[in-house]
């Protein structure tokens, strides 16, 4: 806060004796400074659990928006905002995941990730992250936690409302431009009735021309 007032005094003193435009610029800078001070950037609570094939992450913040998610085989970067607070975290996984098989969704109450493990035959991960130190915002999701030996019997614990059909893939995107151009170039199939009507019109157009040709032949 002391640093804030120092910057505030510098902004005012620098522009105090200038014209109206400079003074206006001072107020803009002060406003931007206030916004910067008021906006917090923190790491959200992230809970995790696992099975042989997947890791389940839950970002425990409601009504997140402006999500930016970047998943690689070895890491996850996440940022979003809610009620003037920016939520950011980045983790390096204990082992590799498969991006194409992984999914995520903003559930409203939280943001959820289903990360597909690359090695689905290996033992359970001993921890979520590669580094041995603990991150304060990472917690075990005890509502989904099971021992590895109990997966056959309790594998669905805590996952009743995790409908994967409501999740989106990380590699989802729009159609390729080449595909769109190909669709535009393809001729549209006409309706049979429309084709018949068109042929009838052509016949009617040709009939007067044939009659005129016959009259010209008789006169000759």
UniProtKB/TrEMBL annotation:
Residues 152-220 are annotated as: Disordered. GO terms for biological process: chaperone-mediated protein complex assembly; protein folding. CDD domains: p23_hB-ind1_like. One of its GO terms (cellular component) is cytosol. Gene3D superfamilies: 2.60.40.790. Residues 154-164 have a biased composition (Basic and acidic residues). One of its GO terms (molecular function) is protein-folding chaperone binding. Residues 41-129 form the CS domain. Residues 174-184 have a biased composition (Acidic residues). InterPro entries: CS_dom (IPR007052), HSP20-like_chaperone (IPR008978), p23-like (IPR045250). PANTHER family: CO-CHAPERONE PROTEIN DAF-41, TELOMERASE-BINDING PROTEIN P23 HSP90 CO-CHAPERONE. Belongs to the p23/wos2 family. This is CS domain-containing protein. It comes from Paramecium tetraurelia.
């Amino acid at each position: 806060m002391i640093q804030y007032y120092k910057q505030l005094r510098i902004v005012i003193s620098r522009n105090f004796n200038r014209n109206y435009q400079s003074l206006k610029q001072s107020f803009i800078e002060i406003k931007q400074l206030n916004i910067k001070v008021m906006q917090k950037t923190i790491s959200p609570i992230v809970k995790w659990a696992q099975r042989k094939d997947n890791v389940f992450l839950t970002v425990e913040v409601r009504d997140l928006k402006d999500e930016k998610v970047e998943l690689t085989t070895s890491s996850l970067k996440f940022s979003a905002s809610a009620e003037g607070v920016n939520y950011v975290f980045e983790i390096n996984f204990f082992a590799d995941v498969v991006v194409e098989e992984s999914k995520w969704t903003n559930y409203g109450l939280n943001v959820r990730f289903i990360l597909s493990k690359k090695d689905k035959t290996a033992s359970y991960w001993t921890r979520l992250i590669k580094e041995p130190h603990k991150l304060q915002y990472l917690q075990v999701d005890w509502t989904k936690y099971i021992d590895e030996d109990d997966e056959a019997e309790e594998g669905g614990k805590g996952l009743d409302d995790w409908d994967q059909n409501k999740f989106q893939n990380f590699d989802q995107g729009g159609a390729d431009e080449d595909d769109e151009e190909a669709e535009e170039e393809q001729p549209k199939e006409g309706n049979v009735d429309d084709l018949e009507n068109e042929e009838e019109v052509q016949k009617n157009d040709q009939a007067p021309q044939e009659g005129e040709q016959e009259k010209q032949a008789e006169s000759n």
